[in-house]
Amino acid sequence: MNICNRNCCEYKINSSYIKWLIEVLGPVILGSKPSEILNISSKDKDKDSKLNDINSFFSNCYKLSYHIINISDGGIRIIFINRNSLSNVLDNKKCLNFLKFIGYPSDYNLDSYIELLIDKLHTKDFPHEIGIFLGYPLKDVVGFMGYGNYKFCKTRYWKVYGDESISDSVYNKFINDRSKMKKLLESNSLSQLKSVI
Predict the structure, then answer these.
(1) 152-155 and 159-161: which strand pairing?
(2) The pTM is what?
(3) Residues 6 or more apart from 176 whose CB is under 8 A from it?
């Protein structure tokens, strides 16, 4: 684990929203999940304060980058990305080949792939390949998008197709990292938390 020696999050964990968000982003911060997408509704009366909290806490974070996507109904989507983890996912040739098959550039570049995904998130047609960027097994993304002959099995955070054990393993890593982050938050130790953020 890299220890953060910056003061980007010093004294900023007093917001209950940020505490909840750090727990949700635990798998992304710890690296088992390459990214997470969150929605804030246009009807959320705390939308502006949540955005301010996110900008205040994460604007200088070295572990995560984030992108705010305004959507047509006045709401927003925020995608948080662990670039190292996402790079590892996209190093998988099968994932990369599938993304190229559905229109991503043939010359792979992490930034251009993130940019294209973000461009798609601005449109009304939700890009279901986002599952790859979220760390879901390729077979589940492919099955959900109607490619291949994978049989639907069950729903976790996502719809599972084909071999359940692969998906269960990924899901358990996400849950374990979220639990680890929750325990760090409950211990109220800024130094321990900073060791992972």
Answers:
(1) antiparallel
(2) 0.89
(3) 32
